[in-house]
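hey so i finally got around to running both of the ones u sent me last week. sorry it took forever, my laptop kept dying halfway thru and i had to restart like 3 times lol. anyway pasting them below in the order u listed, first the sequence line then the structure token line for each. didnt double check formatting much so if smth looks off just lmk and ill redo it

first one:
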Amino acid sequence: MTMPDPSAFIAAGASAEVYRLEPGVVLKLFHAGIDPGIVTREEDMARIIEATGLPVPRLIRRCAIEGRSGLVYSELAGPNLLAYIGRHPHRAHWALDQMAALQQRISACRIPLRRSRKVVMADDIEAGPIDERLRAAAIDRLEALHEGDGLSHGDLHPGNLIVTDAGVGIVDWSRAAMGTAASDVVRTEMVMRFGPGRGDGTQVGWRESAVRDAAAGWYVHRYRAQSGLDPEALAAWRPLVALAWLRQRAPVRDAAFAAYLNDALRVAGLPPQG
């Protein structure tokens, strides 16, 4: 294959660029220098996830272009859930209900994965900017929690859900692992509240902050209402997921996130972050 025309560019992320090759077909072209093992892991994961029957893109093939690895997928055509809510604010509750229902479908999948969410989080906590006393206590607490045997997306948020004519589909399975529903729900809550915003991603005003907090609260409320998830499970995972996120978290709403983290640590009986 040759490099796609620049006019076919759709989006770019930390590891890859996405191009539309033809109607219904897209190319995820990984940046130069990305470990081929990461691409292989996503390729294998895509085939496993597709077999679950979840609404996901179909992997068509792997390719190489000018020394860069690529994966060709069928396209889920439509706006992501965040853009959809922006265009149809009166449908926000419906959209968040869809996200909660899909989260349940994901967690209900039982598939053999070698990648453990607890192991991934432990690595992140070990490498993150965390006080040593807190790090040791957090690792001990993480080891004591139930591993879980359900599918964990690892980064489910409105930007990774696509509203198509056939319903809402799920993309970006690069962080998928075996884990618990509670850890995934907490991750979603945090990304919705404290993830990158518009523009350069770091500027989030008070109005957007209030909307984010309300949307995340509604999502957690609806997930618990639909699933019966115990609030104590969320409280147990909340500080650990937050500490793991410190390794790669962008500087967005830092004061609010610090308050969220320290409150979660307090509730869980863990030392405060300095």
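and the second one:
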Amino acid sequence: MSRSMVKRSLVLIAVILSGGLLAAACGGAGDELLIARSFFQAARFDDRTSLGNMSLVPFTPQDDGIASSPGVEFVGEEDRRPLEMIELNEALAETRDGETTFRADKKMYQDNNEELITLAIESGREGEDPSNADIRQAVQAWTGRTGERVARNNNAGRREHFEGIRDSWNVQVADERDWARRVSEAQNALNDERRIVDVSLYDFVRDSPEPIEVIQYGGELITKQFTVSANVTKDEVEEERTMCFTIERADLHGVMLPSAEEEGEMVEGVVEGRWIITEIDKTSNAPCAGHEAAD
């Protein structure tokens, strides 16, 4: 293919992306076809920048082939649910606060019982109980530093005190791992929720004159499926293939926007993101579930 043909093709992609996907974000007939055409055109030339703006899934010439003449056979109903970024962000902050408090208490306990905890760690690493002499030495060092004494200052009493410290420390070490797991799960839940939001509203956030933090807003996540038929050529063999596309869009509510009626005034409004392809069933060669009856 000549350079001029490639350039014309890339210009076509840009036109489709700026016009077609803008129309798709606003709704209207033919949006799904424009999305499919834009996607397959960008995939044909491995235009990763354009693909990154419209899809979370690949369609490479090497692995999937080159698709042409796409048509939309059926479009499903939109499924809407509230965005939960505010709630998930609050849950993450609360979990982090709990972990911070726990770590501070654990550090205080460790500082107060440093000698006995050190002995517990060392003996645990060696896989054997410390001797009475080792416990006596640790208790004496602990008493000398803190001024505290064990209830019964004999071998049995010192060992009982040591074992209580050791057991409590082991519980706190396990609890620390549990707190780390809970923070990680809370962070992952927030990341999963905002994954589509960040891509769908990328242009708005990038072009906003004021910094926008999307997790501060409520809104909706809209999901829709449509069935696409296309001619796919791979290894010089062309076949007609049916694929199910899943697209998602995030809308933010309560965003301050310039008023359309009063110049210089700002009013709360809704910002509509662009549709993002989040899944393509490329292997079943079948319409989306529930679309068969419409054929």
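quick thing i noticed on the 2nd:
The helical segments are 3-26, 31-44, 48-54, 85-112, 114-126, 132-146, 155-200, 202-207.
anyway thats it, ttyl
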